[in-house]
Amino acid sequence: MRAVVLGGTREISVEQVPDPEIEAPTDAIIRVTSAAICGSDLHMFAGRTVAPPGLVLGHEPLGVVEEVGPAVTTVRKGDRVVIPFNIACGVCFNCTRGFTSACLAVNADSAGGAYGYVNMGPYRGAQAEYLRVPFAERNCLKVPGEPGDEWEDDFVLLADVFPTGWYANELAGVGEGSTVAVFGAGPVGLLSAYSALLKRASEVYVVDGVDDRLAMAAEIGACPIDFRRGDPVEQIVEQRRRRTAGKLQPGEEKMLGVMCGIEAVGYQAVDWNDPTMAENPSRVLEDLIGLVNPTGRIGSVGLYVPNDPGGINPHAKRGEFRLSFGKLWEKGLSLGTGQTPVARFAPALCNMIVEGKAKPSFLVTQRLPLEAAPEAYAKFEQRAFGYTKVILRPDLRVSG
Ligand SMILES: [Zn+2]
Ligand SMILES: [Zn+2]
Description:
Elements: E1 2-6, E2 12-16, E3 28-36, H1 39-45, E4 61-68, E5 80-82, E6 86-87, H2 93-96, E7 113-114, E8 130-133, H3 136-139, E9 141-142, H4 152-155, H5 161-171, E10 179-183, H6 187-198, E11 203-208, H7 211-219, E12 223-226, H8 232-244, E13 258-263, H9 283-291, E14 292-300, H10 314-317, H11 325-330, E15 334-337, H12 342-354, E16 366-368, H13 373-381, E17 390-392
Parallel strand pairs: 10-11, 10-13, 11-12, 13-14, 14-15, 16-17
Antiparallel strand pairs: 1-2, 3-4, 3-8, 3-17, 4-5, 5-9, 6-7
Helix pairs in contact: 5-6, 5-12, 8-9
The structure holds zinc ion (2 copies).
């Protein structure tokens, strides 16, 4: 079969690799109809992880069951399924508590496994024609409809980015009437803002420095904040000061930040305060510690890793960052982190899509054949205009 393979740094190729096979009685083989490229794939692409060459990339698949092992009974050939990026056994201590993101049975090196990802176990990725899915009854979530229908681009986002945007809101404590600031308007940031609006937050600010992404934030009803115009924290506080003028009780001027902060950038954050926009892995977390009101909450779903060969200094290479922990503690802030347990949220989000209450595919900008992956990765990394979310479609062929 054809698959997207990581070579070295910024080297991606589409190669013939052996078809996956049923290896355990609980496995299934999926024919992939859509597989998205994720911002977190870019860290491997850019050589900012210890990912080994030869890795088949991709962890955001939608497809159709092609074959199941003899122990699989609840999933059948022909079922349309979305595959959460977390690989979960379903029965360990963490899975049974709903933390499929920290399954204890699928990765010998740490808690949690995923397809096509560094340090996440020996699993091939999903940017390919076929994918082997372990523990298929747990890891194949059935969805309605047919391949290529009006939900194709929505359902593929259930594998990671829509549940991750939703989870960011859970970590940040977003509910009806909340004030929310989302840092980062990539796919996860935009879907975090979208989720906040679905949860009926009253004010949602989205911080970024890329025009088309800020425009998308405005289109869904959030308030875009362009960090190229200066300190995003001051910009948000200024807007809140204007909105609340004459309405505050004594003392409430100490609450002109937001109650809920969402970090959707990760360790390759750029520093708005540096004229060269140099990388500063703690920039966004620092801004959120400054912005979020006393007793508020921060949800960090942007990726951070403990080993970064390209880190800006010896500490960053080990995933160690300077943070104003004293300020965080003084304000009594809660900080939630980590990968999303997708299976906990995907079924409800699927219902919202089917009922017409959510249409996350507004952010999908390209549907491309597998062969377009090298160019798509490069353009996505450059934040090229119009490259917000790329879906690879193995059924498409390069024209001409
Ligand atoms: Zn992803
Ligand atoms: Zn488990």
